[in-house]
Amino acid sequence: QVQLVESGGGLVQAGGSLRLSCAASGFPFSNYEMGWFRQAPGKERDFVASISSRGISTYYADSMKGRFTISRDNAKNTVNLQMNSLKPEDTGVYYCARKDLFNTVYTYWGQGTQVTVSS
Predict the structure, then answer these.
(1) DSSP letters spanning 60-112
(2) How high is the pLDDT of residue 102?
(3) What is the distance between the alpha carbons of residues 115 and 10, in angstroms, rounded to a whole number?
(4) Can you give the C-alpha Rg of the chain in angstroms?
(5) Helix, strand or coil for residue 30?
(6) Which are the contacts of 50, defined by CB distance < 8 A and separation ≥ 6?
């Protein structure tokens, strides 16, 4: 079955960096666009970044542009999110997700990893 397992979260001071990873299994990883989402306390889950199946195209939420970088390694079935210049408002649970092949819906989600940025 499809599994997405995030890792790399933690506590970091403002201005610091973290690298999140998502290990995928149970499906042909290189066929699927992948994304990262964030849910801040008391808020809805928001889009952070996505990457096309071969890693050629990337997309970012405006507030992450220039600070976050999404990448993937199709040989290792992993998708990563490098987060630099972190701000307290980046605090939340970060989720890895797999996009459906034929529409814009993300249909599979990981369990999430907590990122806390202290001021």
Answers:
(1) E-GGGTTTEEEEEETTTTEEEEEE-S--GGG-EEEEEEEE-SSSS-EEEE---
(2) 87
(3) 5
(4) 13
(5) helix
(6) 33, 34, 35, 36, 58, 59, 70, 99
As a whole number of angstroms, the distance between CA 112 and CA 39 comes to: 9
Can you list the residues of the chain whose pLDDT is less than 70?
none
* Close Cβ partners of 45 (under 8 Å, ≥ 6 residues apart): 37, 38, 39, 95
- What whole-number distance in Å separates Cα of residue 94 and Cα of residue 80? 11
Structure tokens at 21: 């990873």
Q: Which residue has the tokens 């990563």?
A: 80
CA distance 1 to 8: 23
Residues 6+ apart with CB under 8 A from 85: 15, 17, 67
DSSP classification of residue 16: -
Sort 43 into a burial class: Cβ within 10 Å, 0-12 / 13-18 / 19+.
exposed
